[in-house]
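Quick start: what a row looks like.
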Amino acid sequence: MAATRVARPTDSPSTARAGQETSEAEQPAAGSGALDADGRPVHVAVIMDGNRRWARERGLPDLDGHVAGVDAIRRLVSHVVDSGVAVLSLYAFSRENWGRSDDEVAGLFGLLAAAIRSETPELIAQGVRVRLLGRLAELPPALRSQVEEAVAATAGGDRLQLNIAFNYGGRTELVDAVRQIVASGVRVEDIDEATVAAALYTAGLPDPDLVIRTGGEQRLSNFLIWQSAYAEFCSCPTPWPDFGPDTFDAALDEYASRTRRFGR
């Protein structure tokens, strides 16, 4: 009996996913903790959740939880630089966070400014290149200038790409991408997934292989919603201020035990 031939769309499967699948035989044994070149994610994205709950459980002001969260970022980045992961994306401030109190929003802006001042020299020394994902133009001018200076100062980093999602929203990113595509004059019939990907804040970067959410919740919360279409998701009960190298490595072990099929 002759084999059945199926007509497929010319733009499927996406070239962005081509070659990413790994056979079951190539996967590390479940629970082995083995993280060889094939089993390690290239891009890890983290939804840093639980700062306020961490503070309230200790009778502390909400801002103290965010301060502790900045310390957790410092610890994690130092660890990831040596882990073999090439790209780390951190969800720091969503556009929905503008709905919080003026004091909290101003405090978060102040923490970002302080972190830029104190951490940029160390990031340069570690070979970390920084990119901000989000609407930079909506930030206060002084903060925007500091961010731009940090991005320029770390441009030579070649050990880790660190993306800070600040004033970020996944739907907003798609709106901005559509506006850019329309403004560029691309013909409708020429628009494909590659066109959209090239207009995103993450243009030129690989999609996340693994998305970790701390604090126990199990949702993406509008984070990298285009890029995470085929990412593995790991919900960790640990609140962000307590998240560290051990919990990060446990998430990588969990990732390594899974088989990624990309719908095939």
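That is the whole record. The CA atoms of residues 177 and 200 lie 5 Å apart. The first strand starts at residue 43 and ends at 47.
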